[in-house]
């Protein structure tokens, strides 16, 4: 496939430095469906970087016809990738105070509502094009006063007009899992099956304005602002793809994941050719409110009793926290108990935990009373 490679300069944070985004563009601008992909918005999450590197190779060498447009950033966050701190890469939060890199993306629905009010007609395709153009104009008008603001505005500007947005992350130590809105359950099912995801988490109202919601949520927020106008469809499927854990960077896994993303794009009509039969889903989608995020009740060393992929019953002990200061080691263990019945899909990569730190995540099918909508993602 033919492509052009563009570079977007970010405002320099200090004299003598500069950073940029790299954009691989395949297909004609405006061709549909449009897909947008990037990796490592949390800059310490590296499996997706290798996966997209493999996907670029697949696309470059492919002789399948491209029907739509593909915009692919091999890395989403050059700011975070440079945050080396005493031998560690601190890639989740912006060190100058901007917070979590995957929170607080701007909500463009108000600006888009203003721009299109009274202009929707009977033709669904024309309406969607109008909304996308207004959204791209709103993204172009976002302030870019500092590097982080400019980074967020650039990413959103490239993605906001897309039909499909794949935001590729990973967890600490984890199975493949994806986050999708309950509005897009069927597509979540399809992508989850294609990726052999162990867990598909359905979001009602995750909160925090992450990148996926800034894209997909534009459409339902806009519909609400226009009094529930049914002419506003859910025009963007956006997902956070968690490609296992931080250490899971290998050519074998990345090549497999890239091929599965390629097949998903074929299945969605972005690329021609036969994607083959959709693999059988490994599990049913579960509500994000049904995921128990188990926290360390006290500080100490975590000793797991359960492995990734284990079924865990409500009330079962997943791990012990070992109090290293206890005089008697037989009295030093505090159990960490699951409140969900489900699959253990995430554990900590760090073993010495502070109290309140996440120990594990268990995806259950039933909503949990202690999980609050709007506050479902960790800071
Ligand atoms: Zn992440």
Give a quick precis of the structure.
The chain is an alpha+beta fold and 379 residues long. Helices cover 26% and strands 27% of the residues.
What labels would you give this structure?
OB fold (Dihydrolipoamide Acetyltransferase, E2P), 22 strands, 2 domains, 26% helix, 379 residues, binds zinc ion, alpha+beta
Number of domains: 2
Proportion in helices:
25-40%
- Give the CATH topology of the largest domain: Aminopeptidase
Radius of gyration: 21 Å
Major β-sheet strand ordering? 1-2-4-3-9-13-11-12-14
Structural class: alpha+beta
What can be said about the biggest beta sheet?
9 strands, mixed
Distance between the termini: 39 Å
CATH class of the largest domain: Alpha Beta
Q: Could you list the spans in which at least 5 consecutive residues all have pLDDT below 50?
A: none
The small-molecule ligands in this entry are: zinc ion
What is the CATH superfamily of the largest domain?
Zn peptidases
Strand proportion, as a percent range, falls in: 25-35%
- Please work out how many helical segments DSSP would assign: 8
SSE pattern, N- to C-terminal: EEEHEHEEEEHHHEEEHEHEHEEEEEEEEE
Commentary on this structure:
With 379 residues, the protein is an alpha+beta fold. It folds into two domains: 3-284, Aminopeptidase (3-Layer(aba) Sandwich); 289-364, RNA polymerase II/Efflux pump adaptor protein, barrel-sandwich hybrid domain (OB fold (Dihydrolipoamide Acetyltransferase, E2P), Beta Barrel), CATH 2.40.50.100. The chain has helices at residues 47-61, 78-81, 109-116, 124-140, 147-159, 185-194, 211-225, 251-267, and strands at 3-10, 19-26, 34-39, 69-73, 84-85, 88-89, 93-94, 99-100, 164-171, 173-174, 177-181, 199-203, 237-245, 286-287, 291-295, 300-304, 311-312, 317-322, 333-337, 342-347, 352-353, 358-364. The strands form five sheets. It has a nine-stranded mixed β-sheet with strand order 1-2-4-3-9-13-11-12-14, with helices on both faces. Helix 1 (47-61) packs across helix 8 (251-267) and helix 4 runs antiparallel to helix 5 (147-159). The longest helix has 17 residues, at 124-140. The chain is globular, with a radius of gyration of 21 Å. Zinc ion (ZN) binds at residues 42, 45, 102, 169. Residues 42, 45, 102, 169 line the site of zinc ion (ZN).
């Amino acid at each position: 496939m033919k492509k052009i490679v563009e570079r977007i300069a970010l405002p320099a944070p200090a004299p003598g430095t500069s950073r940029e985004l790299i954009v691989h563009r395949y297909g004609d601008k405006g061709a549909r469906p449009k897909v947008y992909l990037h990796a490592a918005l949390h800059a310490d999450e590296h499996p997706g970087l290798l996966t997209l590197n493999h996907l670029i190779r697949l696309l470059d060498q492919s002789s399948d016809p491209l029907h739509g447009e593909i915009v692919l950033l091999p890395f989403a966050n050059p700011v975070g990738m440079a945050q080396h701190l005493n031998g560690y890469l601190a890639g989740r939060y912006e060190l100058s105070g901007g917070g979590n890199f995957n929170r607080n993306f701007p909500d463009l629905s108000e600006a888009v509502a203003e721009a299109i009010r009274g202009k929707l007609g009977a033709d669904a395709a024309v309406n969607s094009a109008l909304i996308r153009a207004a959204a791209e104009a709103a993204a172009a008008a976002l302030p870019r006063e500092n590097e982080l603001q400019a980074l967020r505005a650039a990413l959103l500007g490239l993605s906001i007009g897309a039909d499909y947005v794949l935001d590729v992350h990973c967890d600490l130590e984890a199975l493949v899992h994806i986050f999708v809105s309950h509005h897009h359950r069927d597509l979540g099912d399809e992508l989850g099956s294609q990726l052999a995801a162990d867990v598909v988490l359905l979001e009602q109202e995750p909160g925090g304005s992450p990148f996926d919601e800034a894209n997909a949520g534009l459409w339902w927020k806009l519909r609400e602002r226009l009094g529930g106008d049914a002419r506003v469809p859910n025009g963007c499927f956006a997902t956070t793809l968690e490609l296992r854990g931080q250490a899971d960077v290998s050519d074998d896994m990345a090549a497999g994941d890239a091929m599965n993303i390629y097949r998903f794009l074929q299945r969605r009509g972005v690329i021609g050719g036969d994607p083959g039969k959709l693999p059988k889903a490994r599990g049913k989608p579960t509500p994000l409110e049904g995921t128990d995020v188990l926290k360390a009740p006290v500080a100490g060393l975590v000793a797991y009793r359960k492995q990734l992929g284990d079924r865990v019953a409500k009330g079962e002990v997943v791990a012990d926290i070992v109090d290293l200061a206890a005089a008697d080691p037989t009295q030093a263990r505090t159990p960490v108990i699951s409140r969900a019945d489900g699959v253990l899909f995430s554990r900590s990569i760090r073993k010495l935990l502070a109290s309140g730190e996440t120990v594990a995540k268990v995806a259950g099918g039933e909503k949990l009373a202690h999980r609050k909508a709007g506050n479902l993602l960790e800071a």
